[in-house]
Recover the amino acids of this structure.
């Protein structure tokens, strides 16, 4: 993780602490941890799609395969159900790695994310 990203994370945590955010607000149903899980998974899926197609979103390539919207998927984690948006491609050849097709349970993710950020690490999928 680069220095700028590390500093942004520290500022976000400081903002939570400065606003007297308690642990219950972070961990409760619909809380910050649930939103963080949703955003991290969706961002990872978008990155996987960029890698699969060979170009970023809103860019064009000389490829007949392209993005074809999203599908909603309900995941079950330790902190309740999380509704995520999974990107699709026209040829239906996109196979996500972080969250394989037909997988509904996502156990241990919250703990892994918190421990990685506590250690100052980031997740990179090549």
């Amino acid at each position: 993780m680069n220095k700028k990203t590390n500093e942004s994370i520290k500022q976000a945590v400081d903002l939570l602490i400065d606003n007297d955010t308690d642990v219950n607000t972070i961990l409760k149903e619909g809380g910050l941890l649930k939103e963080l899980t949703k955003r991290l998974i969706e961002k990872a899926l978008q990155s996987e799609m960029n890698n699969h197609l060979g170009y970023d979103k809103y860019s064009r390539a000389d490829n007949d395969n392209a993005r074809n919207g999203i599908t909603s998927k309900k995941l079950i984690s330790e902190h309740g159900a999380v509704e995520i948006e999974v990107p699709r491609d026209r040829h239906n050849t996109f196979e996500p790695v972080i969250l394989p097709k037909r997988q509904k349970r996502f156990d241990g993710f919250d703990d892994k994310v918190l421990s990685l950020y506590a250690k100052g690490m980031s997740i990179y999928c090549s």
Remarks:
- The first strand starts at residue 67 and ends at 77.
- The helical segments are 3-18, 23-27, 32-53, 109-118.
- The mean pLDDT is 79.
